[in-house]
Amino acid sequence: MQVSTAVKELTPKLAFSEIMSFAYESFCANKVRFLLTGLGMVIGTASLILVVTIGLTGKQYVLNLIQGIGANLIYAEYEGGAQRITNTASDPLTSDDMQAVREQVPAIVAASPVSMLNERVPVGEGKERDIQILGVYPEYYAVRNLVVVSGRFFDRQDEQAHNKVGLITERMATEIYGSPEAAVGRVVKLSGLPFTVVGTFRERVNTFGESEVTTNTLVIPYSVARYFTDTPTVKLIYFSVADSSMIEPVTEQVRRVIQSRHRAESVYNVTNLTQLVKVAEKAADGLTLTLLGVAAIVLLVSGIGIMNIMLATVSSRIREIGIRKALGATNREIRFQFLSEAMLISVGGGLIGVVIGLALPYSVRFLTEYRIPISGLSAIVAIVVSSLVGVLFGTVPAARASKLDPVESLRYE
Fold first, then answer.
1. Are strands 236-241 and 73-81 parallel, antiparallel or unpaired?
2. Predicted TM-score of the model (pTM)
3. How crowded is residue 4: how many other Cβ atoms within 10 Å of its Cβ?
4. Largest Cα span, the chain
5. pLDDT digits 0-9 by tens, 350-365
6. Would residue 162 be called left, alpha or beta, if left means φ above 0 and alpha means ψ between -120 and 50 degrees?
7. In this predicted model, what pLDDT tens digit does every residue of 77-97 receive, in sequence order?
8. Distances from the Cα of 77 to the Cαs of 92, 270, 363, in angstroms?
9. Virtual CA dihedral for 240, 242, 246, 252, nearest 10 degrees?
10. Which helix (H) or strand (E) holds 393?
11. Are 378 and 356 in contact (CB under 8 A)?
């Protein structure tokens, strides 16, 4: 009894090793045929990993752009009043609105008004240039996440002392003075008042002229910009919060505070970049799903190729199947033999595809400064999918082989 039990315990292991050995021998005997069949699995699994990598890279790129515009940014601007028959005075934002928000919304950590003026200034050699002047607080530098290329940004002391200092854009400094460094210390006159250029700056990411910063922009302290205006009216107010999870509720609080200080019919746009992030993520997800569909089609075609090659293999090995059955091989062993051959093609091609799919983004990481995100989960999914393809499309040929009559198989020529 003990001997019989031991034999039964060893049989599955021996049968499995033999079946895998037969699968390997069959692969070696038809290398070109199996390699060409597995090529589709290689392309499909590599495409699946690269598609996920592309989607993650797209999301990361958009998030980096948004972070470059301003970290945890909320902005408010006046959109006008409702349509009325009688003319009514405008009800724009003021610097007092910003102060009220800072007092009533504790989550705000930094804020800056933005007043906009335009002026034609002399730039030397008898030439003049139209520039845009932004009156802002020193916090504007941090709120908008700007890059100071040369010199410095004006500080709170400059603001309180009403120092006539300013910064110009990097491009404007290069065009007028030759370089950003050469612009520092130069004097620009606004309505006869001399302003010393203490630095040059640029936006961290290119907004393509869609922000308040243009090519020819001069940034000066808001307290000094008030010299040129009769009222504390501002074009924009920027706010920044410490925690990104607070952006949505703080935006609503800012909207309520501003609306409570103005006429009910006045319309103010108080928003943040969260919605832009959601739109970008949806676009990236849509692109990823589309490309995943293409990868799925490649895998489907590969699966059909595996099924066809295995059906042809069954037809060419009918006598072998008959001999194996005559020697005692069961239908289950025959079925598992051909299924293992299909799995060898699909999983082998899948593994090679995973290596290629991961090698490309890793090469970009090592050879360039770009840190492309890599998903380990996509590699696992690719292996699972390739295994499923082997099982699904190898079942029909395996079942056909196992159902062959041994007598008829031995007579087959």
1. antiparallel
2. 0.63
3. 8
4. 112
5. 888 888 888 888 888 8
6. left
7. 998 655 555 556 788 899 999
8. 8, 7, 46
9. -20
10. helix 376-402
11. no
Find, among 383, 341, 400, 330, the residue nearest to 12 by Cα. 330
Question: CB neighbours (10 Å) of residue 200?
Answer: 25
CA distance 264 to 334: 81
Length of the chain counted residue by residue: 413
- The Cα 216–Cα 221 span in angstroms is 17
Average pLDDT over residues 152-172: 94
**CB atoms closer than 10 angstroms to residue 6:** 10
Q: Determine the Cα–Cα distance for residues 307 and 390; give it in Å rounded to an integer.
A: 9
Query: Which helix or strand (DSSP H or E) is residue 13 part of?
Result: helix 2-29
Question: Closest Cα partner for 43 from 293, 290, 295?
Answer: 295
Residue type, 54: I
Amino acid at position 121, single letter: V
Paired tokens of 280: 């970008």
Integer-rounded Cα radius of gyration of the chain: 35
Query: Checking DSSP bridges between strand 187-190 and strand 73-81, what pairing results, if any?
Result: unpaired
> Tens digits of per-residue pLDDT, 21-75?
666 666 666 667 677 777 878 888 888 888 888 877 877 777 777 666 665 889 9
**Closest C-alpha among 72, 74, 66 to residue 256:** 74
Taking the C-alpha atoms of residue 204 and residue 143, their distance in angstroms, rounded to an integer, is 12
Helix boundaries (H) for 218-375: 222-225, 247-260, 274-316, 318-326, 331-367
User: Do residues 213 and 134 lie in contact, with contact meaning Cβ atoms separated by under 8 Å?
Assistant: yes
Please, are residues 79 and 409 in contact by the beta-carbon 8 Å criterion?
no
Tokens of residue 109, six digits: 């950590």
Q: Is residue 365 classed exposed, middle or buried when 0-12, 13-18 and 19+ CB atoms within 10 A define those classes? A: middle
Mean pLDDT score, 180-201: 92
Residue with tokens 């992030």: 277
Torsion on CA atoms 335, 341, 344, 345, rounded to nearest 10: -120
- pLDDT tops 90 at residue 140: yes
The DSSP annotation for 99-153 comes to HHHHHH-TTEEEEEEEEEEEEEEEEETTEEEEEEEEEE-TTHHHHTT-EEEEE--
